[in-house]
Amino acid sequence: MKKYTKEHQWIELAADGTAKVGITKFAAEELGEVTFVELPSVEKTVHGGEQLCVVESVKAASDVFMPVTGNIAEVNSALDADPAPVNDDPEGAGWICVVKDVNAGDLAALMDADAYAAFCK
Question: Which of 3, 4, 50, 56 satisfies CB 3.0 to 4.6 Å to 61 for a cystine?
C-alpha cells in the first residue's frame, strides 16, 4: 500500500510492518538534478510532519518531511555515493529510508495514488 503527502513524499507499507519513504516523481521533477541527500540517522524517531532530511539539487535545497511517525530502521546509503536514483527512480531505487513502528493511524490521513494524482493537477 503506497500513500502520498501534500508535501510530495510517499510511503509504502510492507507486509512486515516496515515502510519505505521517499520523494515523489513530481517532487523530483520540480527539484531538478539532485546533487546530495542528507540522510536521516538510523534509530531516530521522527514524528509525522517533522523534517526527515534535506535533498539538495542544482536549483535549491529542500526539506523532506516524514509522512508518519516512526523509527528510522535503515537508510539508503547508496545515495551517499550517487544521488541519481532520486531523480531516475524516485519511487523505487531512490527511496530514502525504511521506517519501523509506523503509526498506522497516520496512514489514514494520507492520499492514495488517485487522490495524489488529482492533487498534482
Answer: 56
CATH of the domain at 13: 2.40.50.100
- How many structural domains compose the chain? 1
Structure confidence by residue, pLDDT tens digits, 6-23: 999 999 999 998 999 999
Tens digit of pLDDT for each residue in 73-84? 999 999 999 999
Q: Are 11 and 20 in contact (CB under 8 A)?
A: yes
Task: Report the alpha-carbon distance of residue 49 to residue 72 in Å, rounded.
Answer: 15
Domain that holds residue 16: 2-120
